[in-house]
């Protein structure tokens, strides 16, 4: 007997005056709200003004949306971007934000942190990224749970007992039990958040610069590379590739994380903030 979880969740929670309130939107907003609480806690513990957390959150929100939307079009729908850049720009900044690429969001965030550091010269670049990556990991948990509620980014067919039968998924004709790949990534992000906060809590402001950033990049994108083997491709052009787009983009992210981690352990402890 084939065991599986019957997944038939309505992505819409309620409709108010014709305006739908969806699980994904609620969880997406929760990612920023929870991230802000964590970041404010970190800044308070290190004696920094909470106003800086407010400013950093604003940078992160704008960078996440623009970076993720641009990344989606650039990496997965480049012909549409090339054919009509004006329409792309309108779609990029206009809700609902269907189609978000985590690699694009990562690039956007790293650029935003650079702009933030230019205005807050009392903080180094890696100091800032180290304080933000735990919140990004927590945000990843909420966003992947939103994907699960939307029955999107589904896994490949499987006979594992925890497989999900996504009854509301419409992109694939074959209705069979599949890997709940969204849940795999969500739980991984939650565990990583706990680990990063544990590492930071041991030394707080004396944590080696780059340590949290390096660990985050290596863990997230190494897992992403292997999880992709369990997921359906997001675009048809990936079917003819040895690895899909998410895997190719994860490789430089992991290498970057390794480089940052090497830097963190080579830097003399007395020069760390």
Automatic annotation (TrEMBL):
GO process terms (BP): lipoprotein biosynthetic process
Cited Pfam families: LGT
Transmembrane segments: 23-44, 56-76, 96-117, 124-143, 183-201, 210-227, 247-265
Subcellular location: Cell membrane
Signal peptide: none
UniProt entry tagged with the keyword Transferase: yes
Keyword Transferase annotated: yes
Binding site for a 1,2-diacyl-sn-glycero-3-phospho-(1'-sn-glycerol): 144
GO CC annotation, single: plasma membrane
Mode of membrane association: Multi-pass membrane protein
Pathway listed: Protein modification; lipoprotein biosynthesis (diacylglyceryl transfer)
UniProt keywords, alphabetically: Cell membrane, Lipoprotein, Membrane, Transferase, Transmembrane, Transmembrane helix
Family: Belongs to the Lgt family.
Function of the protein: Catalyzes the transfer of the diacylglyceryl group from phosphatidylglycerol to the sulfhydryl group of the N-terminal cysteine of a prolipoprotein, the first step in the formation of mature lipoproteins.
PANTHER family: PHOSPHATIDYLGLYCEROL--PROLIPOPROTEIN DIACYLGLYCERYL TRANSFERASE, PROLIPOPROTEIN DIACYLGLYCERYL TRANSFERASE
Protein name: Phosphatidylglycerol--prolipoprotein diacylglyceryl transferase
